[in-house]
Design goal:
Elements lengths: L1 H28 L5 H26 L2
Helix pairs in contact: 1-2
Length: 62
């Protein structure tokens, strides 16, 4: 059970790291920061983070 929890924690931390990096990039490329831009950026960054994490795991599984 502890190994499963550790694996889950690592996966969540990886997604969080990707999300933070992608959100920072989003904020650098927009001209005005308002609430709608933050929401859209956070959502788009989350989608990208999950995709990046899944792609890394798929390549590592070869």
């Amino acid at each position: 059970m502890a190994a499963h929890a550790t694996t889950l924690l690592r996966a969540l931390l990886e997604v969080l790291g990707w999300w933070a990096a992608l959100a920072a990039l989003w904020l650098m490329f927009i001209s005005t920061v308002d609430t709608l831009e933050l929401v859209v950026g956070a959502a788009a960054s989350l989608v990208g983070a999950v995709a990046a994490s899944a792609a890394r795991r798929a390549v590592g599984a070869r």
